[in-house]
Amino acid sequence: MDLTGTAASAGIGIGRVVVVEEPTLDYVSRTVEDTAAETERFNAAIASYVDYTNGQAQTMRETVGEKEAEILTGHVVMISDPYMQGEMVKLIEAGMCAEDALVQICDMFASMFEATGDELTMQRATDVRDVKTGVLAELLNKRPVDMGALPLDSIVVTHDLTPSMTAGIRPGAVAGVVTETGGLTSHSAILARAMEIPAVLSVPGSCHKLADGELVIVDGSKGTIVVEPDEATLEQARADQAAFAAERAELAKFIGCRTTTASGEAVELFANIGKPDDATQAMERDAEGVGLFRTEFLFMDSTSMPTEEEQFEAYKKAALICKNKPLIIRTLDIGGDKEIPYLGLEKEDNPFMGFRAVRFCLAREDIYRAQLRALLRASAFGEIRIMVPLVTCVDELTAVKALIKRYMQEFDQEGIAYNPDIQIGVMVETPAAAVVADLLAEEADFFSIGTNDLTGYTMCADRGNDKVRYLYSTYNPAVLRSIKRIIEAGNEAGILVGMCGEAAADPTLIPMWIAFGLGEYSVSATSVLATRKAISLWTKEEACALADKVMQLKTASDVYEALQEAVR
Amino acid sequence: MFSEKVTLVNPQGFHMRPASLLVAEVGKFESTVKIIRNGNEIPGNSLMAIMAAGIKCGEEIEVQAEGADEEAAGRAVVDFIASGMGD
User: Quick one: pLDDT at residue B87?
Assistant: First the structure.
């Protein structure tokens, strides 16, 4: 019986299962006669919780890092609040037991935090509940399991990996983690990644399906768990584990480095994201910003039009995660190929050449207004840049800029903050935009080349169509010339030219982009370090020599062969 | 009693960090400090109560201080809020 779940922390763990059950914190409510003694019991529990948590924070600071330890010191700060403690004691003095008083006041604050509508405070509601659980464990004398005592190469199987559980883990002792709940951005996932422990999350019933002592392989890259593998499978897993470790060690050298070519030209290396939470992983993987935040999810995951307020919260959330690093947000890129009833998009014979993206948005100002206003308001919270998709002519860009200017004037009157110098750029992905790139560059603050659509539109080939897929290739001279032209036009005008398609991370094409003078690469979060490495392997001179040769070739297959041969 | 109105200017309002800093500021004085918002009193020494109130950028609140050093305490808190609370 093998299990699958969410691949939350990459790598392969081989070891024996230890099912870690959280102590149950059930208790019987009662009324108290001796309220002075109950208050004393309550104060002692808090003192003991503070002591214990501070100790764990110290361990975490040493084994994981300052940022993770701050979660725990935050818990101490919260429970030390004299007003909150006072409210609890008042209830105890009125005859309530300490457990009830604690639960009632913590739950009250947690729900108040959730009701503020402020993203940062709302997230803290989880911490209030952690504090509640922690103090409750003290009152009931049931501290969480000591993870420090686990045997080497344990595979921890638990309902949910909490920060207080994680704090005790010794590096090396835990080979893998399996949980029943939690997604890619849960505490469990973030902590497992920070400690580089392979983790598969959201495996329902895993605490019962796996038994203590069973040998398992946890593949945190694929999200699979193999139970009692045969010798051949185990052998393969050991080989994969070694290869993964070697690759990770190699890429680790590039963490915290600037992204430069071998001859020292600096470029920017960003990540593509689809949801605000994805920015967390992008930052963990050392991206220098976000080069493409697709906003479609807001519209696809909803049954009615997302309001300006909802969009504002989502953009602001991403901006706060990115701190002050650039965050390029693409406005709605949707057309008749998607079924979103409330948008009233009609089915079209050829949606990819039809009423979509900026064309749709400019015709439906009611929809675009909410998005652009939300983006402008969120720009007060970070380095947000606005990117307009599917631009084919200068008029479209000037029309968007005029709208933005009008909304800025509205905000001036309403007294709402925004960044007046917000950059507005073009996603260059149509042959028309490539041909008039010099004209667009005079109006745009930046370019980002969308190589996926640019390739499809330039070659007039749908990559989903088996019969014409052979034409869909960035190696075609037509596509390479187009990209070269766009980059040169942007550089000529002195604006940043980036690339946010899959080709930006392709090690065979990277020397071409270096030669053309690409200024920013935006790739998937998992490709950031590998791309930084690939860029570092070429001097500008070497890349230009290769590009000169390649640009003389006449066919995509010749180009592919030449680049494949040269790849580093 | 010291009493003065002040407008919140830091864009993110009272989340945990500025709220902690404010409580630390209040803790430097003997006086009791309160924040009055829409008629509700929020104790100035309570991080949790200040966060739970969810006071947002642009809102006007009133700072009250009462005690031996009320003038200095109130002034310090008002100045701290008006300065953007380190955000």
Answer: 65
Beta pairing, strands A496-499 & B32-37: unpaired
Helix residue spans in A202-307 (DSSP H): 206-209, 231-252, 278-284, 296-300
Is-contact A504 A487, C-beta < 8 A?
no
Percent of chain A with pLDDT strictly greater than 70: 99
Give domain status of residue B87, yes or no. Answer: no
Cβ pair A117:B46 closer than 8 A? no
B16 CB neighbours in chain A (<8 A) are 74, 77, 120-121, 124
**A316 exposure class (CB count in 10 Å sphere: 0-12, 13-18, 19+):** buried
The pLDDT of residue A493: 97
CB-based contacts of A353, cutoff 8 Å, min separation 6: none
**CATH number for B11:** 3.30.1340.10
Of A193, A286, A325, A272, give the one whose Cα is nearest residue A524. Answer: A272
Report if residue B32 sits inside a domain.
yes
Domains of chain A: 3-22+145-233 (3.50.30.10), 35-139 (1.10.274.10), 268-566 (3.20.20.60)
What would the pLDDT profile of A341-350 be if each residue is shown by its tens digit?
888 888 888 8
Name the residue with higher pLDDT: B11 or A413.
A413
* B83 close to A (CB below 8 A): no
Mutation target to probe the B interface, by most B beta carbons within 10 A, among A87, A109, A120 is A120
> Which ipTM was obtained for this model?
0.91
Phi, psi (deg, nearest 5) at residue A174: -100, 120
Give the C-alpha separation, A385 to B40, whole Å: 39
C-alpha A88/C-alpha A165 separation (Å) is: 26
Q: How far is A3 from chain B (nearest CA, A)?
A: 40
In a domain, B12, yes or no: yes
User: What type of residue sits at position A122?
Assistant: M
Residue B62 lies inside a defined structural domain of this protein: yes
A410: Cβ contacts below 8 Å, ≥ 6 apart: A373
Active site residue A159: no
A448 or A166, greater pLDDT: A448
pLDDT at residue A318 above 90? yes
Task: Please give the sequence-ordered ranges of beta strands (E in DSSP) within A295-423, or none if there are none.
Answer: 326-330, 383-388
Residue A471 has pLDDT above 90, yes or no: yes
Contacts of A120 in chain B (CB under 8 A): 12, 15-16
> Cβ separation of A83 and B53 shorter than 8 Å?
no
**Range of the structural domain that residue B75 is part of:** 2-82
Cα Dmax for chain A: 92
Split into its structural domains, chain B has a count of: 1
